Amino acid sequence: MTTALPRRRLGLHLMLFVVYQKVALGLSYGKIQRELAIYFGLHASQGTLTAIVAELAQLFGPAYAHLIKTMRQQAALHVDETGWRVDGKNHWLWVFVNDVIVLYLISRSRGSKVPKALLGEDFDGTVISDFFSAYSPLDVEKAKCWAHLLRDSHKLTKGKPPPPPDSERVQFHEQLHHLFLDMGLALEEVTADQNGREQVYQDMRKQLHDFAASSWHDADCQRLAKRILKHLDELLVWLRNPHVSADNNQAERALRPAVVTRKTSFGSRSKMGAQAFARLLSLVQTWEQQGQDFFIIAQAALEDICSQN
User: Comparing C-alpha atoms, which of 235, 304, 286 is closest to residue 98?
Assistant: First the structure.
């Protein structure tokens, strides 16, 4: 059984150890150097560690391409993005995630062309997102996140001093929150009954529309009411479609490992490094999402690659 790549000082397991510490745990190369020295008695330069990450990212190129193909076959995907620096320039790290896959991409653009290109022309699932305008042009079914909406309505109840309990701002948030809870309770009663789900959708659509169309006088209440009316159907997809959830929390959680790495590395030093990071983090997070051990499945995949070369 192959345990090392040709002309490489470190075995496959140690190379994967370097990748996991850097990509999944967000450790700096300096800390990884110390770990190798303390735990394994090995001394490796930062250049060697950088080359390991780049080489494994290249070897896993076909696996990443397969992830993209799998992603395009999903019934629903959570999508989000966060800032990322590449060679000191502003970029964006995008994530596309559900219970099956986690896929990352780093791009200079934060525009709709990124999800359009990644999803492809044949994607016929649902994209679950926040209210960022880049998702509006997508020619797919779109669902909007209630967590973001309720977060913004909750901000209306804050301030110095906070508004009184009988103020329009507080009433707006409390009524919207109760309406959302009513939706969940109504959906629990019909479970998998599609006809029942459709009835819940119709009933709740009317209630949400009437709520947003009420005569709100506060400017911020009016702003959120207009958002609700603009995205009325997108806020209710989860009532009809069992593959869709009411929030986009899964995408936000999937960005956390990258945010940890961003704090220690301040991004990527090159486009190649950014591509390697996104590719390897996609594989690590996908395999762990599927309940598989990264070291076992990745080493088996590398041994197969080595045996073919």
Answer: 286
